[in-house]
Write a structure and sequence with these properties.
2 copies of one chain form a homodimer. By secondary structure, the first copy, chain A, is an alpha/beta fold. In chain A, about 30% of the residues lie in helices and about 25% in strands. The longest helix of chain A has 25 residues.
Chain lengths: ~625, ~625
């Protein structure tokens, strides 16, 4: 029972899990786990750079005077600690905030965006307004409206209340020469001194379960100016959507806390993007937001509880316009946040954005989109009809529930190959750092290679006889050492029997989603002429390996396109084009949601799909000859 | 120099001014001044009922422990003190809040309202919504909208964000049988369990310079249910609109403070009206607001600075819809506040409401409205054309700037008559209390009677020889004792030469406004077929006396109608009828504002009108024979 005093720490957002002795100083634990954190003073409690956030204060030693000096009251309240001054007492989760990190996460920000005609909801117009006099006593707003009508022939009847409060001073300080920002041809939302017509910007926000990304665009020409990104700070409340829903549903206070975390994250990424392009927050006049339905609800502060309970219906599905200030988003105080519509409880605004950005809704060709993540959305259709479903693929491909799994950050193995002759492993890590673990794409590679080398069979079982010394048995459980400590890894990096089971479940979930949709439309893989792979880690996967393990249907590689963050691309398109918003709204109403669990074949199909690549090899003609 | 240590205190909202020795305990000062305040413990610092509000903390002794115990932190911050624990050090103004008062103010709440077809912007509908199931996964909002469409054939696309947040729980707790409140046929603003269709209420708010009144109406039938009223707490910053503008224009913080005072006042009157009718604040779904332009701007938090600077233009003149919660008004959180339009910097939404409630905009008969107050609005017109102006009549008729003047509260003389034979004075006080001073109507009576009795001449000068012992000369200044201390008054109640000058200026201002408008339209008093007297004290004046001193044009009494609080009546009409709001909006655009100061005849006409009743007696044929 020497493990009795060992405590498990999970470090977020990397998801690294490790055991330590009770009382270990967090800074030492981080070093032991091979994670880097800023610590300019070397752990003397002086620099205040090694900030961490703890979820449950009781799991740690009491706050010290050094911490009270270096951390603000609000930080202390939010669970901030200094890693060098705080030791661990119980199993706990620790979040390393952006500011304390020295490694960079490999985040897929780009998405394939189709060109659209720039037609934002924002319009800036320069006007010289006649000054008031005793013979012209029209109100400030009236003369502004009259000037717009005289010069631009438009009648704008509404004015934002927050702007109105300051309008008299703005107009007079500007000597009645101002630039007016109009929202949706109906509301005046900003008035600025001088001619600032060319300074018109907006941000598209993609709120993923694991990351928040901001795309700052120039609304005069639609061009992407800069980006910002951040791990979703909600990871404190769980990796997957279900845990987030469960946490936010506990009480109104938990929901508020969850919402605040997301909003804080959104503010951070917007501010990062603005800083990169040296723009003031007040120059952001419009926001579009996409995310899965749970993130969508939590972002809006809407109860997500019933998303997690059968029949999993969202509170709201149509598009929403909310004043950014009502969501505490720090941009121009009168800016509007346009939240894209969702399709169902588990097919969100991100899926709608996928459909918008790939354009499958207007294509003659039958297309499929697989947007991979903790939940994987599968969409199938063309201009006539679209069906969609959600697969509970789980976080295995994000590195969770896999012994040596980790997120795609510095030190993660992202590609690997096993030599079928000598079982030697060649690999590549992110940033060519010392290998620390396996990210999603390497996990797929590992399983595919083990299968090819016949170290595992089609049921995922390790070979009975050890074909190589890399195949080890510990406590009756087999595992394959990919990179040992001796070979230069920070720890023995391996794939266990349990890991392979996790991958089988995950890939079966995705494949079954694809299959059920094809069955619904009564089509075969050969009928699919366009296959889009989207999602944060999608771009990095080896397609042949993915097909070999049966994760994707057997579609010719030439028909497959990586579209990266397609949801973000859709959000950007909706930002710069009102037409795209209307398209998104009509898509959300038109798509037929398929509840997989209700399909009579689902259970059987899922079971068949857990086999590598599938129980029925006829479904994978291109790899059939390998077996 | 025995007066050196005497300090002047002004008690608001009654406007009583008196001198006291430095160090006097406020509770004693109040008693000396004949003002009553709650003090259940008799001044022992125990009951905490004698709350007062001081404007400048430095003018008073330090806060005591007793006060710290009885007053909340927020009260202490807002300048609350206990009258029994606080003594005066400097000249100061003290506000006695509603809760501490024992006297009731004679407030004119009623206004003549014309019957209108009830057509509120609020509509409540009961719906039974099909429950979600795995085969019907429409979102909560969608199924709500679909049910409204199925049952009532209406398409409502918007939903208030604050409501949306709680919607999933409301629907499920109500077992999907709910009453939906729809605003303006376009936004769902409330969803309540069960059938509450008949519980639909709204409030009309009249924000006057000196008072705030709330009219709570049943929106199903338009009937008035209850009222609430309060002195405008802004009186701390001055009696008249100009002082209020000056104060609120000092800084953004002063504006916020002024706005908060009005909003607090509005919340108080709404809550009073709700309590009287045993209604919850959440049953108030709509608000209409009227007030003069300065109150309108301050209520909205809009900079009123330029209202006070030539050319006196408002920031905004059109009608506005603002969420009540954005103004911190405590009613249903999704209620809308509709603020009626204004005409000019000194002709506000109250004047628009006067025009709506009297209906002169649709009349064939040429009509004039005089809405008396610190500013008096004069409106002249018919269905073809309307002109309006504002007269700086000042607060004389509200009791300010007049030695023994006071507001129309208990103890004020409201009517009086001087016997021309023996100069004896008969009078009536409000609530038949011991006479304390003169309110506006009695001031008019006094001047008119002194003129009739020839104690003053047409120039307002007191007779040289004392015709009665009531006419006294003190320090070279003449005054007429109306009720002496010996006759039972709390002090010698008199009219001084200076008081008469104040009245002459005030009445000349009103008359000149009426005259300039008539001149503009090239008409004579005989052409006016309807003359409406509106305003808080309007109903109590003796019309013959008002004409005798030349305050109103010489119109036959049969053509004159008292309409009381016509502005409040207009606000109520706009509350229960959307049509009336549209009428108000079109009125505000159509009315021609006349800037009196720009009229070439103004100065001369004003001077002629200071004479009693007028320098040119031909303008007052009906009283000409008296002189």
């Amino acid at each position: 029972m020497s493990l009795k005093n060992l405590i498990t720490l999970v470090f977020e957002p990397d998801g690294v899990k490790s055991k330590f002795r009770k009382g270990t100083i967090i800074l030492c634990a981080l070093k032991e786990a091979g994670l880097n954190i800023r610590s300019e003073c070397g752990g003397r409690g002086v620099c205040g750079k090694c900030k961490i956030i703890v979820q449950d204060a009781l799991g740690f030693s009491a706050v010290t005077d050094a911490e009270r000096e270096r951390l603000s009251v609000s930080e202390l309240k939010s669970g901030y600690r200094l890693a060098c001054a705080c030791s661990v007492l119980k199993d706990a989760k620790i979040f390393i905030p952006e500011e304390s990190r020295v490694i960079t996460r490999k985040l897929l920000i780009e998405g394939t965006e189709r060109p659209v005609k720039v037609k934002p909801t924002i319009r800036k117009l320069y006007v010289k307004i006649p000054k008031p006099s005793l013979s012209d006593i029209r109100s400030d707003v009236q003369r502004l409206q009259d000037s717009l009508k005289d010069i631009y022939k438009i009648e704008i009847t509404e004015i934002d209340h927050t702007l109105l409060k300051k309008l008299p001073r703005i107009l007079r300080n500007a000597n009645w020469k101002v630039t007016v920002t109009i929202w949706d041809e109906k509301e005046i939302i900003s008035v600025e001194p001088g001619d600032t017509v060319k300074k018109s910007y907006g941000v598209a926000i993609d709120i993923g379960t694991s990351k928040i990304i901001c795309y700052l665009s120039d609304l005069t020409n639609g061009e992407l100016v800069s980006t910002g990104s951040l791990e979703n700070p909600q990871v404190m409340y769980g990796e997957d959507v279900i845990s987030r829903i469960a946490h936010a549903s506990q009480s109104d206070a938990s929901l508020k806390k969850s919402q605040k975390l997301v909003i804080d994250g959104v503010n951070t990424v917007i501010s990062e993007a603005c800083q990169k392009s040296r723009l003031g927050l007040q120059n952001i006049y419009e926001i579009t937001v996409v995310g899965n339905t749970a993130m969508h609800h939590i972002f809006l502060g809407v109860q997500p509880k019933y998303l997690g309970l059968s029949p999993y219906v969202p509170a709201v599905s149509g598009p929403l316009n909310v004043k950014a200030r009502d969501l505490s988003i720090k941009v121009n105080p009168s800016a509007n946040a346009h939240v894209l519509p969702v399709i169902a409880g588990f097919v969100g605004a991100d899926a709608v954005a996928d459909i918008v950005s790939t354009g499958i809704y207007e294509s003659d060709k039958l297309s499929m989109i697989v947007d991979m993540g903790t939940n994987t959305e599968v969409i199938l259709g063309d201009k006539h009809e679209i069906v969609a479903c959600s697969c509970a693929s789980g976080p295995a491909f994000e590195g969770a529930h896999v012994k040596c799994g980790m997120k795609a950050v510095t030190g993660a193995i992202e590609k690997l190959q096993i030599n079928p002759e000598n079982y030697e492993v060649s690999y590549r890590t992110i940033e060519n750092a010392k290998p620390m673990g396996l990210c999603g794409s390497a996990i797929i590679d590992a399983v595919a290679n083990l299968l090819k080398c016949k170290i595992i069979d089609r049921d995922g079982r390790f070979a009975d006889a050890p074909v190589t010394s890399r195949l080890k048995t510990t406590n009756g459980t087999k595992s394959f050492i990919l990179v040992s400590r001796e070979e230069g890894a920070t720890r023995d990096i391996m794939i266990t029997q349990k890991d392979i089971r996790e991958v089988q479940l995950a890939k079966a979930a995705i494949y079954t989603g694809c299959y059920i949709l094809m069955k619904r439309k009564n089509i075969k893989p050969a009928d699919i002429k366009k296959f889009y792979v989207a999602g944060a880690f999608g771009n990095y996967i080896n397609l042949e390996n993915a097909k070999l393990i049966g994760m994707l249907p057997d579609i010719p590689t030439k028909f497959i396109t990586f579209v990266g963050n397609a949801a973000g691309a859709g959000a950007r398109m909706a930002l710069i084009s009102k037409t795209q918003r209307q398209i998104a709204a009509s898509i959300s109403r038109k798509v037929d949601y398929v509840e997989l669990a209700l399909d009579p074949d689902f259970q059987r199909e899922f079971a068949l799909a857990t086999c590598l690549p599938h129980r029925n090899l006829d479904r994978f003609p291109s790899v059939k000859n390998l077996f």
